[in-house]
């Protein structure tokens, strides 16, 4: 970082010199950590549209260029040339692994994919029609009740074990949530399957017959995991960091991230988007929905469109769109009506000044649901799949924060506009 650059702030007869910190990529930041102590004022930034909350070396996004880098490697290269567990290694440890490092990492993950047998009973406390995200929030939060030996965050080895356990067990828990919701028996993971194939088996195999997914579907599943792995300081990652800053155990922090991701403005958008495309149904109804999305008095928004950071295009959506074509072609699903509506909706929206002027483009959630539906998942499993994919990002960001010796509990302030001091009034005098 360049040294000794400052921003001058003058108000109420005061002049403050605030340090300017220069990143390796992206905009400079003004360090305001001493602002309140020196100037007696807060900054105000609801939604954190202009606020850097932490220093990180994991993921970089350039919203104008539509660029997403994981430890410097662009997402399109990782999606094409790498695979999810190698991307997990990269996110966790900062470098692409050697052959032996990757083999060791994959073996450690593989050997942690089973969950404590007692957890099967835990599921039975839920209604069968519970949304799988509700089940996942509960079961992941309960992991700290089963894995006491990896909850001491001051112990680097326990942090490592908890990280591996979370990455390894989330697919098993997500698959169990799905099986429970459809009344089928749980399927145990197998050590002779790769990560994506294992997940497909645990979701779609039944005791009554053998199951072996088409390798291209496993590859498409693995690519979806990679495209969702991490994304800088998004809402759910920020939730994990804030929960972790209090010293909460890693399982509780990831459960908090899952809860935040569930919202339709965030990870819940993939389910909402497919349901929107299905509701539109045919291309002739698209203008009606575009008009609603543009109507200030209508709360309807195009699900899968827009992004806080990407103001050009979401590079993940580009890869996802290509993958959707491949998967549907493989499955012989010609003229998939949902995909036709999606492509026509994208074309019409990107031809409409409302969307182009507001820089609203398809995001990662716009095409992912089409692939997941084609693979055989119900819409209720779309966000759980996003959650199991993003677990590695949450864990990597959590480890980075916990490992920072300068770290402290996150405690934002506020702009208070409520009642000023007043005395209590007895009820007979009100
Ligand atoms: C994810 O942060 C991340 O990185 C998230 C994520 C990740 O990997 O972690 O990328 C995953 O959450 C992707 C986003 C998924 N959500 C959706 O697809 C839901 C639909 N999108 C919107 O709700 C919205 O675009 C957000 C929430 C994604 C972003 O909202 P912002 O940045 O707060 O933008 P905004 O609400 O201030 O909107 C700016 C303008 C507004 O109009 P004006 O008030 O300026 O007139 O654009 C309009 C909005 O009304 N607008 C939309 C719109 N999104 C924004 N209008 C119609 N349809 C939309 N989808």
Task: Please outline the helices and strands.
Layout lengths: L4 E7 L2 E8 L7 E2 L4 H5 L19 E4 L4 E4 L2 E2 H7 L2 H10 L5 H12 L8 H5 L8 H11 L13 H26 L13 H10 L10 H13 L7 H11 L4 H12 L7 H12 L5 H9 L20 H16 L6 H13 L3 H5 L7 H11 L6 H21 L28
Helix pairs in contact: 3-9, 3-18, 6-7, 6-11, 7-8, 7-18, 8-9, 9-14, 9-17, 9-18, 10-11, 10-18, 11-18, 12-15, 12-17, 14-17
The structure holds s-citryldethia Coenzyme A.
- Number of separate helices: 18
Q: Let me know the average pLDDT.
A: 95
Measured as a percent range, the helix fraction is 40-55%
Overall spatial form: globular
Give the biggest sheet: 3 strands, antiparallel
Report the order of strands and helices.
Answer: EEEHEEEHHHHHHHHHHHHHHHHH
What percent strand? Answer: 5-15%
How large, in whole angstroms, is the Cα Rg?
Answer: 23 Å
Low-confidence stretches: none
Explain what you see.
- This protein is mostly helical and 430 residues long.
- The protein has 18 helices and 6 strands.
- It has helices at residues 35-39, 75-81, 84-93, 99-110, 119-123, 132-142, 156-181, 195-204, 215-227, 235-245, 250-261, 269-280, 286-294, 315-330, 337-349, 353-357, 365-375, 382-402; strands spanning 5-11, 14-21, 29-30, 59-62, 67-70, 73-74.
- The strands form 2 sheets. A 3-stranded antiparallel sheet has the order 1-2-3. The chain has a 3-stranded antiparallel sheet with strand order 4-5-6.
- Strand 4 (59-62) and strand 5 form a beta hairpin.
- The longest helix is centred in the middle third of the chain and has 26 residues, at 156-181.
- The N and C termini lie far apart (60 Å).
- The mean pLDDT is 95.
- Residues 231, 234, 265-267, 269, 293, 301-309, 358, 360, 363-365 line the site of s-citryldethia Coenzyme A (SDX).
């Amino acid at each position: 970082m360049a040294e000794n650059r400052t921003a001058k702030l003058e108000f109420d007869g005061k002049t403050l010199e605030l340090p300017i910190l220069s990143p390796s990529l992206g905009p400079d930041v003004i360090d305001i950590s001493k602002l309140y102590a020196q100037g007696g004022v807060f900054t105000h930034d609801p939604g954190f549209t202009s606020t850097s909350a932490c220093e990180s070396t994991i993921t970089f996004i350039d919203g104008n260029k539509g660029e997403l880098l994981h430890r410097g490697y662009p997402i399109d290269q990782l999606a094409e040339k790498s695979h999810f567990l190698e991307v997990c290694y990269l996110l966790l440890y900062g470098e692409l692994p050697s052959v032996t490092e990757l083999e060791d990492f994959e073996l450690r993950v593989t050997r942690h994919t089973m969950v404590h047998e007692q957890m099967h009973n835990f599921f039975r406390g839920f209604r069968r029609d519970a949304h799988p995200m509700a089940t996942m929030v509960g079961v992941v939060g309960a992991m700290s009740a089963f894995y006491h030996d990896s909850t001491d965050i001051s112990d680097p080895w326990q942090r490592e074990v908890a990280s591996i356990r979370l990455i390894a067990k989330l697919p098993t828990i997500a698959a169990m949530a799905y099986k429970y919701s459809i009344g089928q028996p749980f399927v145990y993971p197998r050590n002779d399957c790769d990560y994506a194939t294992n997940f497909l088996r645990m979701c779609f195999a039944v005791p009554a017959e053998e199951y072996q997914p088409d390798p291209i579907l496993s590859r498409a599943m693995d690519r979806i995991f990679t495209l969702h792995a991490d994304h800088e300081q998004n809402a759910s990652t920020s939730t994990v960091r804030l929960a972790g800053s209090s010293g909460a155990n890693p399982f509780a922090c990831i459960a908090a991230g899952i809860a935040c991701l569930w919202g339709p403005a965030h990870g819940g958008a993939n389910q909402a988007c497919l349901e929107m495309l299905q509701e539109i149904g045919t291309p002739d109804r698209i203008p009606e929905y575009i008009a609603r999305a543009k109507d200030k008095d209508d709360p309807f928004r195009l699900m899968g469109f827009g992004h806080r950071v990407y103001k050009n295009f979401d590079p993940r959506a580009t890869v996802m769109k290509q993958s959707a074509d491949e998967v549907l072609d493989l499955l012989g699903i010609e003229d998939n009506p949902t995909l036709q509506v999606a492509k026509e909706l994208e074309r019409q929206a990107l031809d409409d000044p409302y969307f182009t002027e507001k820089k609203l483009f398809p995001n990662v959630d716009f095409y992912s649901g089409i692939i997941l539906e084609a693979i055989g998942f119900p819409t209720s499993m779309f966000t759980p799949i996003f959650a199991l994919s993003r677990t590695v990002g949450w864990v990597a960001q959590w480890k980075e924060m916990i490992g920072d010796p300068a770290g402290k509990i996150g405690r934002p302030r506020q702009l208070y506009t409520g009642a000023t001091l007043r005395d209590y009034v007895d009820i007979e005098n009100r």
